[in-house]
Amino acid sequence: MPTIKIQRIALIGFGEAGGIFGQDFAKGGMSVSAFDILFDSPESRDSMLAKARQSGVRAASDSADCVRDADLVISAVTASSALDVAREISPVFSGEQHFLDINSVSPGTKRQIAAQFGRSRGSFVESAVMAPVPGQRLKVPMLLGGVCAGELAAALNAIGMNAKHVSDQIGIASAVKMCRSVVIKGMEALAVESMFAARRYGAEDAVLASLAATYPNMGWDKSLPDYLISRVAEHGKRRAAEMRESAQALRDVGIDPLMAEATAKRQDHLASEMRAQKIAYDRTNEFSWRNLADALAPSEKSSEAR
User: Fold this and answer.
1) Which run of H or of E encompasses 35?
2) d(CA 245, CA 238)
3) Residue 298: which CATH number?
4) Which residue among 149, 170, 191 closes a domain?
5) What is the reported pTM?
6) Taking each helix axis from N to C terminus, what angle separates 289-296 and 258-276, rounded to the nearest 10 degrees?
7) 260 occurs within a structural domain
């Protein structure tokens, strides 16, 4: 039996991951509070508060209100905000609370975050989320690191999560995530670049057939291209920021992040192109990379002008 008991959970960040976790925790009988900076934005406040109500989650007035009396605090914010959140939360932590950082940041950043809690009485555990949250929800695989990671993994699994203790040392779990991201997000960026070019040449069917013949079990002739490119179309800005964290992780061990930086640039570029053309990712319809490529292709008139 886990020695850590989790009944009250605080979520800092109520976006995609935080929203899914909050809803599922509440359904499981947990007492859940959440705070997100969008709660204070006039443009998003009403929709975010409605999301919290519909999820059975208490919308906190600020981060201190959110974490008060929580057994577990989960930080699910952007990579660029992760350290600032820890700095804000750590002074109000108590010795009975645990802080779980699930953000995609470098091992060095995780250690900086952990240092904030080293000066308080709270217990810090890092988490590397190893798959998209929407697909598996609470069962998404998570790798945990830290002195209390083994105990917390058992407690998380007891409330329906899928956590694995990989190290007592902060940084190992995130290193696994960062190094894996070089491949996974790199494949996404390569798919965007290759498929969009092939589409403009009218050669995509032959290219996909060749890839399928070379890697017959990957699904290049089925759903894989749509899946890879959809990840960039939906979350390109966020994934680019995560790849910049991967690049920093490589630099920290003396590896020049040539591929990681290029991947971040390609992910960022597609997001910027879509924004410039006022193309939004539509979750309600089946995604087609061909349709997106065509929508972003230069018109014949503009091509002739060049």
Assistant:
1) strand 31-35
2) 11
3) 1.10.1040.10
4) 170
5) 0.86
6) 70
7) yes
One domain for residues 112 and 233: no
Nearest to 261 by CA among 185, 173, 194: 185
Contacts of 100 (CB under 8 A, 6+ apart): 72, 73, 74, 75, 125, 126, 127, 144, 152
pLDDT by 10s per residue, the chain, length 306: 568 889 999 999 999 999 999 999 999 999 999 999 999 999 999 999 999 999 999 999 999 999 999 999 999 998 889 999 999 998 888 778 999 999 999 999 999 999 998 765 568 999 999 998 998 999 999 999 999 999 999 999 999 999 999 999 999 999 999 999 999 999 999 999 999 999 999 999 999 999 999 999 999 999 999 999 999 999 999 999 999 999 999 999 999 999 999 999 999 999 999 999 999 999 889 999 999 999 999 865 444 444
Domain boundary among 131, 153, 170: 170
DSSP state of 273: H
Same-domain check for residues 88 and 215: no
If one counts the domains in the chain, the total is: 2
Residue 165: φ, ψ to 5°: -80, 120
Task: Give the whole-angstrom CA distance, residue 153 versus residue 163.
Answer: 5
CB 206 within 8 A of CB 194: no
Asked whether residue 64 falls in the same domain as residue 83, the answer is yes
Cα 100 from Cα 11, distance rounded (Å): 10
Residue 116 lies in a domain: yes
Beta bridge partners of 31: 8
Range of the domain at 181: 175-305
Residue 37's domain is classified under what CATH number?
3.40.50.720
236: nearest Cα among 194, 183, 199, 192 = 192
In a shared domain, residues 166 and 179: no
Antiparallel, parallel or unpaired: β 8-12 and 31-35:
parallel
Classify residue 2: in a domain, yes or no. no
